[in-house]
Design a protein that fits this description.
ER, Rossmann fold, 2 domains, 16 strands
Length: about 350
Amino acid sequence: MKAIGLYRYLPIEDPESLVDVEIDKPTATGRDLLVRVQAISVNPVDTKIRAPKPQQEKTPKILGWDAAGIVEQVGPECQLFKPGDEVYYAGSVTRPGGYSQFHLVEETIVGHKPKSLNFAQAAALPLTGLTAWEGLFDRLEINKDATPNANKSILIIGASGGVGSIATQLAHFAGLKVIGTASRPETIKWAKDHGADYTINHHQPFAGQLKALGLETVDYIFCLNSTDKHWDNIVETIAPQGKICSIVETEGPLNLSALQHKSATFVWEFMFTRSMFHTSDMIEQHHILDTLAELIGSGKIQTTLTERLTPINAANLRTAHQKLESGNTIGKIVLENFN
């Protein structure tokens, strides 16, 4: 079957950084689904894993952790899906990714594709949707019912990116006052169109901008960009007993002691934790994806697809990676259809 992989970890400008390959079509065993991939999306995790490093691979390493497709085959222990079902998922970073015509994924981290969306629209959602949901509701422990959140606020750093585009929608749906960071006219508009009540510029100190909105502090902060860079602003603007979640690794140690006098909570969100460690609640990702599909069906959440490339091949994936590495993308880039 066709796939796109790498043997060496190279700058994306190098034509060998991602190459078209032929690999064996796998077979579903256990609780695995074999999915015929119809569309894939790219994420920062793809570019980080592909980034230049000395090691080389003897067999092609397949990236890609956002896919939508049709179940081709189910393993003998599967209980949730059957052949012909349309699905969407992010998969596991410990297994080969979805840059391939057929892909194996454990059914407990797969959702039923939203019926109102096509495959490209659906492929834009799983990784960012799961990250946003887990960050808001599992890590920050925000109540999903809007009533208790009527007087609470959240600052989302990086509101127009992939995760931010979903997080603003979910936070708005949960009844929070949503402040997103954005610095360009197009990203400000995007953030507000997707649920942000206000925006502030992440290139400027936060406190004065929040004060201009009538806020001394915020109850929650969801950091989706450059934790190191924004740390002092985060410490200054989090409310006493507030909660902070970040998805972005740091280049050095954080001064957690700076939060002590506020009794503030700091927690990480890594969407692959459940699948990496096969946690006892791993099936929650199946439930989250199905819940997101229901919210999409009812019009409460929308896809964040902004650009489509076709077909799925190495040249187009190199283009998508370059766009993502520029740091200027809004929403999600999706590739569809293998030739």
